[in-house]
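Task: sequence in, structure out. Protein: Flagellar basal-body protein.
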Amino acid sequence: MKKNTIKCLSGLCLLMAFQANAAWLEVTGKAPILESDSTARINALEDATYQAMLYSGADIASFNHIRPYLATEKEEYQFSGNSIRHVMVLKQNKKSGNMYVTARIDVYPSANSCHKNQYKKGILLGEFDLISPQHASMGSIYQIGDDFTSLLQRQIQRKSQSFVVSGVTQVPIRPGQPTVMTMLAEDNDAQYIVNGQITDLTSTLDQKFIKDDQVNRQFAATLQVIDGKTGDILFQNNYREIAEWPFAKTSQVDTKSARFWQSTYGQAVQRITRNMMLDLETALSCRTSLPEVINVHNNTVQINAGRIHGVNRGDQLQLWHSAGFIDPMGIARNRMVQTDITLTVERIYEKSTELSVDQANLANSIQPGDLLTKQIDR
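Result:
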């Protein structure tokens, strides 16, 4: 058994050991104490479990399946059918307003996880707008929507196993106009469009007899995911956190500063972006990634997926012809027909790839707009 010491971002991974295809980690998770010790314990244990999955290469899409069970206060948790098999709480303590939970976590990463068998799928992010700008008056955090969008973008780019951000658009996202949405996605090489709104930034005063009064502030947001191929809404969810607002009521707070993001409130907002990213993983990671043909020249085909999507030299892909049509009601119906044509990756660029057609006599039948799927070795 080999042991390694590693360092995590929001907690401390004290010890990591590998044996066969399994790993166990002793991890310390951290969470601010606000509502109660039990809530802080849950958040800290979730943090430790998430860090363990991330660093061991386990499928983080399965994290949401075990979160409800971690809400029960126990010393040990057993799971089956998941990358996490066993969680044992070793100790917990409070310090400087934070809860620290140290746990031993047994992880069994699977080679058949969706993110290991698929290319990363492109996401176009829309700006998160403030529903009620007057909610931002305390602290003058009127730019929080732009900064939240940038934070979610970094969360996906750095932590997501299944997605890459193709771009951020200021074009209004209107699910009621599916044709416009598909054109917008196509222009940005995005398989999905993701956006939302910040719905609540109100505050409440927690009056105390001994200490100074504490201001608690809400952060609530919505999230929706649109299929870039059809314009359909695939996923919607609401998120809410409440945390201490540690700044003076009359101060102007810079939401781009480390002081803001390292505060209790800033950490709560970061937790929402993490939960959004995890929900995307859970809902969409096993959907097939669909690189598109963008150019054909003789026996060479170029597609709109490259190094950032996880394409490797020698990969083999299956071609699907686009056979969409307009029905008698004037509604566009997408339809893909699988072919016997396979292609092999020859040259990889940052966001595109050149492939050779294995059946050279069939190359003339390939057209821009055709889709491909990665062939999986069995």
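The chain has three domains: 22-110, 112-288, 292-374.
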